[in-house]
Amino acid sequence: MKLSTKGRYAVIAMIELALNDKKGLLPLAELSLSQNISISYLEQLFSKLRGAGLVAGVRGPRGGYRIAKQANEISIAEIVSTVDKSTNLILKEGTNEVANQIWSQLSSRIYNYLNDITLEEAIASNKVVNAEVIANDDDSVQVSPQVVEVNQASAA
After folding, report:
1. Is 11 helix (H, G, I), strand (E, B) or coil?
2. Per-residue DSSP letters for 8-58?
3. Domain 5-125, CATH among 2.60.120.10, 3.40.50.720, 1.10.10.10, 1.10.3720.10
4. Of 2, 16, 147, nearest to 84 (Cα)?
5. Which residue has the higher pLDDT, 1 or 115?
């Protein structure tokens, strides 16, 4: 599996769509500004994502995109493979067969690893624990942990 800029940006975009799913449609212009990715590049990616049934779009002034499936039904490998069809790391024909075998096995392992991570799991792993530390008068310390999603907290 080849990990390209296309794949990275597609994963970033899909995570943003999943995070904003309850808010409704996400316009590409808004996604472009928040992630610093050009609209024309996003349009190319979303054309492929829409063709694969991963996103649904609505045209018009209030239009935008949303994920077309549940976040737990979409794997990171599916996103990457959709936008970057040349996912194989194998060298050109006629080159060292042992090297090709190593790259083929690596490609397979990367794919399997990313295929085991759903969009939902990727988002869930992006949580941090903020702890409020309170010093009491008796020199004891009270810690109050709060789980905060990084992307949503920074957007607020």
Report:
1. helix
2. HHHHHHHHHHHHTGGG--B-HHHHHHHHT--HHHHHHHHHHHHHTTSEEEE
3. 1.10.10.10
4. 2
5. 115
| Length of the chain (residues) | 156
The domain segmentation of the chain, as residue ranges, is 5-125, 126-156
Cα angle for residues 32, 126, 112 (degrees, 5° grid): 90
Distance, CA of 50 to chain centre? 15
Q: Tell the burial category of 10 from Cβ atoms under 10 Å away from its Cβ (0-12, 13-18, 19+).
A: buried
CB 47 within 8 A of CB 94: no
- Tens-digit pLDDT profile for residues 37-86: 999 999 999 999 999 999 999 998 889 999 999 999 999 999 999 998 76
What's the one-letter identity of residue 22?
A: K
